Amino acid sequence: MSQLRLALAQVNPTVGDLAGNAALIRDWSARAGQAGAHLVAFPEMVLTGYPVEDLTLRSSFVEASRAAVRQLALDLAADGLGELPVVVGYLDRAEPPVGTTPGPAAPAATHTGPQALGEHRPEDRDAPGVPKGAPQNCAAVLYRGEVVARYAKHHLPNYGVFDEFRFFVPGRDLTLVRVRGIDVQLAICEDIWQEGGPVAAAREAGAGLLLVINGSPYERDKDDGRRALVARRAAQAGCPVAYVNMVGGQDDLVFDGDSLIVGVDGEVIARAPQFDDALLVTDLDLAPATVTAPSTTIVTAPRPNAEASIPAVTHVVLADQPVPEYAAQPGRIAPPLDGVAEVYRALVVALRDYVRKNGFRSVVLGLSGGIDSALVAAISADAVGAANVCGVSMPSGYSSGHSKDDAADLAKRIGLDYRVVPIAPMVQAFLDGLGLTGVAEENLQARVRGVILMGLSNQEGHLTLTTGNKSELAVGYSTIYGDSVGGFNPIKDVPKTLVWALARWRNQQADAAGEPAPIPENSISKAPSAELRPGQVDQDTLPPYDTLDTLLQAYVEGAKGRSELIAAGFEPAVVDGVVTMVDRAEWKRRQSAPGPKISPVAFGRDRRLPITSRWREHES
């Protein structure tokens, strides 16, 4: 066996910030070098940020990425890191970057395979259904000031939030890089989620390590699925698998890191923490390369006895000599967070990065005294600091005394900027001018509150947060342009029952730390109400939330039909009522603020239904 010190850089890039992301890579590469790493790897498309969506179709952006990866190689060498191979994800197109050389101080390779260093088959260019410019999701190996190797993602996910057939063309061939006498095979994210492909070829190619760079978004309990998957792939590849994932928020996605290294036996060798930037440095004992090293630095050849349809293998030899034996350090294994804790961390990271990456410094939200706004206020304080949270109580003539008291109590507990703006005079002015009654009058109160929040946002530069949970969003239990107004919704994908669980968890954490609980107990225990008319509570028009959330999970996330829902034990009248509300609220959801995805099916990119539709489950 041969030793290798591997560094996995779990970092938080920003989409489109090529200069900032390059600086991030240089910083963490320097840390890896100081830690004595022999190889450092960064996440999928770290140089451009991920996902870049239709920016891939702009030639200017693709060329900027290609230029940035070349400059990054030069900058790393200038930083004194030229001898440290650095693997970075970036955006390329189906041809090698201009100025790419076949290797450090090496003659050009003889191309005997259909794709070498990015050369793509002619039939993949300008064909129907191929994205403009044939962009590719790639990994580059930077060494001695050069881009010495390149690998294009094979499997392009086209489900859930992913739409990569729209953005990329797939790669077809394999890339192995010899580092200190060990052949390291590259793969990108979805390549290990699909059977076959690079993983299946790793054993035959003689890889000593399968290195996978990822941009895998967070979902509840997904870390357990990843671990099992990586263990299975290690057994199939016949070598350890190193999985580096990005961390941080990007619009409605949040990435949890949770990078890990798994041995052939399925045991975790090392694991990074969730939701934190981290450098996971691990000493590995790996099988040495078995393929005879060529006389040149790079050789490209088909796999033995391969047919034309089977990928070629590009071997890039950087250093053939193994590392002299040294005292290895045990791998660090960060404990995983429990289910509620990881959701809370996801929401905090998502909000923090949405605020920071979009140039805001503070947030504003309405404080009703209820559980939803209380939880969002607590998340906001943890994300951006209590001093940067403006909470506004906007009582109407129907607001209860305990709601006003609970809002004030929350503000005092958290220490946020608290303001009280009574809305009754403003509402009355509209009523006098328009003569609204009934539901229109109820909704007017919410819309006046929305105007107040947006006015403060415009005047003082806050990001307005909306506070509707997933259960309310599902059934349309909100006022469009009223309580739904805002630029971001931290709990958009959080069902009502989970809102309560998160509030209790946050208070427990405060108690354990000897701090005041941020959320008043009365906000948790009292019956939810919009307080738009006397004595109103949510259960006037909705089933109990335990029932509602279970039904919504089956209908929204499970895509169950009416007969299946009734067979599962739900009352027909409840099914018909809830399903009808969900279907009729699609137009509201289409206009809702973005918010972090935490479930397998979040409203938005995960679930795309027509607004105009006459299909009704209860009439089928």
CATH topology of the largest domain, what is it called?
A: Nitrilase/N-carbamoyl-D-aminoacid amidohydrolase
Radius of gyration: 27 Å
Helix content percent band: 25-40%
Which consecutive residue ranges, at least 5 long each, have pLDDT under 50?
96-125, 295-309
Any guess at the CATH architecture of the largest domain?
4-Layer Sandwich
The total of beta strands comes to 20
Q: Output mean pLDDT.
A: 88
Amino- and carboxy-terminal Cα gap: 64 Å
**Separate helix tally:** 18
Going across the major beta sheet, what is the strand order?
13-12-9-8-7-6-16-15
For CATH, the homologous superfamily of the largest domain is named as: Carbon-nitrogen hydrolase
Question: What percentage of the residues does DSSP assign to strands (E)?
Answer: 15-25%
Provide a compact summary of the structure.
The chain has 18 helices and 20 strands. It has 620 residues and is α/β, with parallel strands linked by helices.
Topology:
Layout: E1 2-10, H1 18-34, E2 39-41, H2 59-81, E3 86-93, E4 135-143, E5 146-152, H3 164-167, E6 174-179, E7 182-188, H4 190-193, H5 197-205, E8 209-214, H6 222-237, E9 241-245, E10 247-250, E11 253-256, E12 260-262, E13 268-271, E14 278-286, E15 298-302, E16 312-317, H7 339-357, E17 363-366, H8 371-384, E18 389-393, H9 401-414, E19 417-420, H10 424-434, H11 438-460, E20 463-464, H12 470-475, H13 496-512, H14 521-525, H15 545-557, H16 562-567, H17 572-584, H18 586-590
Parallel strand pairs: 1-2, 2-3, 6-16, 7-8, 8-9, 17-18, 17-20, 18-19
Antiparallel strand pairs: 1-14, 3-4, 4-5, 6-7, 9-12, 10-11, 12-13, 15-16
Helix pairs in contact: 1-2, 5-6, 7-8, 7-13, 8-9, 8-13, 10-11
